[in-house]
Amino acid sequence: MNEKILKLMERGTKILGSKYAIMGGAMTWISESNLTSALSNAGLFGVLASGAMDGDLLKKEIVATQSKTDKNFGVNIITMNPKLNDLVDVCGERKVSHVILAGGIPEKSTIEKIHGYGIQVIAFAPSQVIARRLFKQGIDALVIEGSEAGGHVGPLSTMILIQDILLNMKEYPIFVAGGILRGEMVAALLKLGAAGCQLGTVFACCKESTAHENFKKAYFRASGRNAILPVQLDKKFNIAPVRALENIGMDEFVQKQREVLQKFEKGEVRAENGRLSLEHFWAGSLRRAVQEGDTDRGSLMSGQIVELIKEERSIQEIIDQILREAESVLD
Ligand SMILES: Cc1cc2nc3c(=O)[nH]c(=O)nc-3n(C[C@H](O)[C@H](O)[C@H](O)COP(=O)(O)O)c2cc1C
To answer: Is 307 in the pocket of ligand 1 (CB under 6 A)?
Structure first.
């Protein structure tokens, strides 16, 4: 059956060690051991989110994931996590196969430290210059993620990143993320030279996701136009844009931003600390939505692809449809 699409995926599956070159992108509070192992057991590549965890917590989560799957999965580490080195050590100790570095451009020394454990490194790049630099520094694969995606996003859309990075760097293994769901799209990207794709939003509300029922229902009700970016109040104090469904929580974020901005202007808080407090705000409100089901004040991080997601499906149903659609456009 799926011979043609599997052939096109070979480059990516060799890197990931999975059956399909489809990564289930890490989602803080959502990509825990159950979802990650379920993705890997279904032949995809699950990625555990370490968010703001410390080493002990991450170790517990990796052990739990390893008890539920013997397949490869990745660990997503946010580069600005002050416990970065401890987290890398835990991944080394637990013999994780891949670390995905997100939330900033990683240092060469971090890439080398991870390689020292025999672990493959995947990173994100927002531009061709940075993509080339990261490969020069030794990363094994790259993810380019367009601003259609859910969660923290860069300024450029997937369409622009494809033309600027993917098409100019075909010799390197690049996975594409942001606004992808249909198999025809996956097939087209593989034909353009992508090693594979990374999907997030669709797995946040799949059957195996342990996210609260209210959280999932909010996705099924939403349309793509509800997945918005918060307003930036002042150019001098730039905030990391985070795409989420509009709700009271999004308004509260703007209010929080106003408070931090005022403190920054009065010299009461430094820019980095101000931004960090906004990050904590996001992490806390995402947890409220995912675990407590507070869809009014919690953060409903979501990509624009929510437009196409109308019901709860299992990972198997999602991947079966992707493969079917992909095969239908391959000759
Ligand atoms: C609720 C949510 C939380 C996310 N958290 C993270 C994260 O902790 N680390 C990360 O690298 N990406 C995070 N992402 C991005 C996803 O891993 C993935 O790249 C993105 O969702 C792909 O685009 P899509 O939403 O259009 O499928 C998050 C996305 C969502 C929807």
So the answer is: no
Cα–Cα distance for residue pair 39/33, rounded to 1 Å: 10
What is the b/e burial string over 94-125, where b = at least 16 CB atoms within 10 angstroms of the residue's CB?
A: bebbbbbbbbeebeeebbebbeeeebbbbbbb
Q: Does residue 223 carry a pLDDT above 80?
A: yes
Q: Which domains does the chain have, with CATH numbers?
A: 3-210+308-328 (3.20.20.70), 223-301 (no CATH)
Q: Are 63 and 96 in contact (CB under 8 A)?
A: no
> Using CA positions, which residue lies closest to atom 10 of ligand 1?
26
Q: What is the pLDDT of residue 276?
A: 85
Atom of ligand 1 minimally distant from the CA of 301: 1
- Rounded to whole angstroms, how far apart are CA atoms 45 and 41? 9
Distance 299 CA to ligand 1 centre (A): 13
Mean of pLDDT over the chain: 96
pTM: 0.97
